[in-house]
Amino acid sequence: xxxxxxxxxxxxxxxxxxADIQDLKSLAEMDDSSLMDEIIxxxxxxxxxxxxxxxxxxxxxKYDHGNALLAVHSGAGGTDSQDWAAMLERMYLRWxxxxxxxxxxxxxxxGEEAGIKSVTILVQGKLAYGYLISEKGVHRLVRLSPFDAxxxxxxxxxxxxxxxxxxxxxxxxxxxxxxxxxVYKSSGAGGQNVQKNMTAVRIVHxxxxxxxxxxxxRSQTQNRENALKVLRSRLFELQMQAHDEVVAELKGxxxxxxxxxxxxxxxxxxxxxxxxxxxxxxxxxxxxxLDGSIDGFIEAYLRMKKA
Length: 307
Fold this sequence. Notes:
This protein folds into 3 domains: 2-56; 68-169 and 281-306, Alpha-Beta Plaits, CATH 3.30.70.1660; 176-251, 2-Layer Sandwich (Double Stranded RNA Binding Domain). Helix content is 42%, strand content 24%. The protein has 8 helices and 11 strands. The strands form 2 sheets. The protein has an 8-stranded mixed sheet with strand order 2-3-1-5-4-9-10-11.
């Protein structure tokens, strides 16, 4: 029924678009010069809507229409790297806000001096996973470090993970005997209730060795549910990676992606440029990108992937 509802919504959107085009055609056939400005404005709006729909047609994967779990981890570079991870967190939160997506921070570990060590965000909205999958990989920042007394140029790295949010009855089954659940006091900001009570949850998946933590909610039960949600998605990713590696090896094209192979570079000094190394798409509007304007990179990746 959920899938039927999703497909019905898609059909209704296309039918409404067709009706708008027919109404506009009838308006144009009236040959009334006083209506010209209104017609031109409606044509421009329809072209924007069609361009958006064309992009959505590139998203046909099983999980593309669902929610996404997005995680950012600071890499090599110390405080600069942790500050870079916080900049990426802000970029994705701004992008989601512009899209009208709902976001929820499930787990966040702050850095010692500045920034964050890691953050896990649930992004809820139509096509959230389909759009965000293009962001998966290593992101590289080049800038004059605000944490260096000599104000030298530094290169920082952060890893972005993107996972589909899976339902309980999906492909991954977590057996109670395969997990070890620990509770502890949350750290960092969050109020007295969060820090004084045993609300944080850590789950260890024994067969795979995966460890998932969640401490942002005031309720231990809610943190446990969120941690299981993240664990389920991470186990699914492991299954997909194993499958992809087998297929790639059979084709003779298997190449393991290492930490250093960045997908995108953000250069703030000595010049301003953000460039995606997979699609060659680039822009000099670095501030706009860091403020969440990443749709150009997403669309370029989707078109490349489809091709």
